[in-house]
Automatic annotation (TrEMBL):
<feature type="domain" description="TauD/TfdA-like">
    <location>
        <begin position="123"/>
        <end position="381"/>
    </location>
</feature>
<protein>
    <recommendedName>
        <fullName>TauD/TfdA-like domain-containing protein</fullName>
    </recommendedName>
</protein>
<dbReference type="InterPro" id="IPR042098">
    <property type="entry name" value="TauD-like_sf"/>
</dbReference>
<dbReference type="InterPro" id="IPR050411">
    <property type="entry name" value="AlphaKG_dependent_hydroxylases"/>
</dbReference>
<dbReference type="GO" id="GO:0016491">
    <property type="term" value="F:oxidoreductase activity"/>
</dbReference>
<dbReference type="InterPro" id="IPR003819">
    <property type="entry name" value="TauD/TfdA-like"/>
</dbReference>
<keyword id="KW-0560">Oxidoreductase</keyword>
<dbReference type="Pfam" id="PF02668">
    <property type="entry name" value="TauD"/>
</dbReference>
Length: 431
């Protein structure tokens, strides 16, 4: 009796078979003519933190086994090269004035007036919008910056909200109110309507087995995307040391891979077994989709490395298909290529960072907190319906749940940091 071989797993994934069919095929024994057992396909030697030596060794081994890989044709309709302001290198930016917008005293006064106006309405925070948080002068400025996200460089920083002058809840209000001019829809981040997330080290108060994402540790975060159109972070406080926010153009990474390793573009554009959203103890146990899409003349990448490697209390499930050696190489390639030409942002207390999540990777250096300076960020997942890119069919269900599944009255703004259901260790289910 012998489990199926690696090439059979790859064929199954390419065919986008129903998950139950794939799982049945993976677990069903195959009788060999000599009745000798052969080993089941195993997860490659890959962890959440990328190892450059292992990446180089895997690349050398795969190219030695098949020297024709760099001659692999790109998937149908995928461009040979992207030409856009979204294609940039970190060294292209000489001064932070190129991406930082400094709020004036008049604009800060306008924000303060909007806070008072919203309070006068007596509405819950879920009703924060352009109409309930009026910014007559700053609003058009933010609308232009939103265009920069979608058709320009893909990122900007708003500096700086005087967070110490406001209560915790009023900082939530300011963040959501200002952000409503960048993207009016707030994405669902957790169960019970949670649309605001706290990014903070919880390793001192929570057992490691309950933490399944680096967002809740002081650990380095590798290059990845979240889900949704726009990722925004608001710094209530920065770390005593480290914690630099880093971003990289995924469109530049695409160009480099398309020129030198088109086989990895092909790999990224094929279905992968995601131990992710609705997984880690959820039902179904995994989903299949590509990480890379070419849709409406745009390249879109959506991936998080931990979904394929696991992290701390949320290891990758052992009863789902392993990723392949090609997929392991692709994960390392997009991380290290992203790292090579990244831009470090001087993220300060009171800054709000906005990123086009469909074309920009983000990462974070490890950091050290002190009692006086404890890194604490807030996060929103936003969508601007006027400017938003068209979403591939494979992502539509997620986007509908993300942006259209809760009403303003159902939106929740947690007052204190909590681990999202999707990032809890110990097999916690997703919302």
């Amino acid at each position: 009796m012998a489990p199926v071989a690696v090439d059979q797993v790859t064929d199954l994934l390419k065919q986008k078979l129903d998950i139950s069919d794939v799982k049945a095929s993976l677990t069903a024994p195959v009788v060999a003519s000599n009745s000798v057992k052969i080993e089941a396909p195993k997860q490659p030697d890959i962890e959440y933190h990328p190892n450059e030596e292992k990446w180089n060794a895997r690349t050398a081994r795969r190219l030695a086994e098949d020297p024709s890989l760099p001659q692999t044709p790109l998937p149908k309709s995928f461009p040979q090269k992207l030409d856009s302001p979204l294609v940039w290198e970190g060294s292209d930016w000489k001064d932070e004035s190129e991406w930082v917008y400094n709020l004036s005293k008049d604009e800060l006064k306008e924000i303060d007036d909007a806070v008072k106006h919203f309070h006068s309405l007596g509405k819950p925070l879920g009703h924060i919008s352009q109409s309930t948080f009026p910014l007559p002068a700053l609003g058009p400025v933010l609308a232009n910056l939103a265009r920069e996200l979608h058709t320009g460089r893909g990122f900007f920083v708003l500096r700086t909200i005087p967070v110490a002058s406001y209560s915790h809840e009023d900082n939530f209000l300011i963040y959501a109110g200002v952000s409503s001019y960048v993207g009016e829809l707030r994405g669902l981040q957790d169960k019970d309507g949670g649309v605001l997330a706290h990014i903070k080290d919880l390793s001192q108060t929570h057992p490691a087995k309950t933490i399944g994402a680096p967002a809740y540790t002081t650990d380095k975060q590798v290059y990845h995307t979240d889900i949704g159109d726009i990722i925004s972070l608001f710094a209530l406080e920065v770390a005593a040391h480290g914690g630099t926010s880093r971003i990289s153009s995924s469109w530049r990474v695409y160009n480099e891979l398309a020129a030198k390793r088109p086989d990895l573009i092909k790999t990224l554009a094929e279905p992968w077994p995601l131990d992710g959203f609705h997984s880690f103890g959820g039902d179904p146990p995994y989903t299949l989709r590509p990480l890379l899409f070419h849709h409406d003349s745009k390249i879109i990448i959506q991936y998080a490395r931990r979904l394929f490697t696991g992290f701390l209390g949320l290891p990758r499930s052992t009863d789902i298909p392993p990723i392949t050696e090609a997929q392991a190489e692709a994960l390392d390639a997009i991380h290290f290529l992203g790292e090579q030409e990244a831009l470090g942002l001087n993220f300060q207390k009171g800054d709000i960072q906005y990123i086009n999540n469909l074309s920009v990777f983000h990462a974070r250096d490890g950091f050290v907190d002190t009692p006086e300076k404890t890194r604490h960020l807030l996060r929103l997942w936003l969508r601007n319906e006027e400017l938003a890119w068209k979403i591939p069919p494979e992502l539509e269900t997620t986007w509908k749940r993300l942006y259209y599944s809760v009403t303003p009255d159902e939106q929740r703004f947690p007052a204190e940091p909590e681990i999202r259901a999707a990032s809890k260790g110990g097999g916690a289910k997703y919302a």
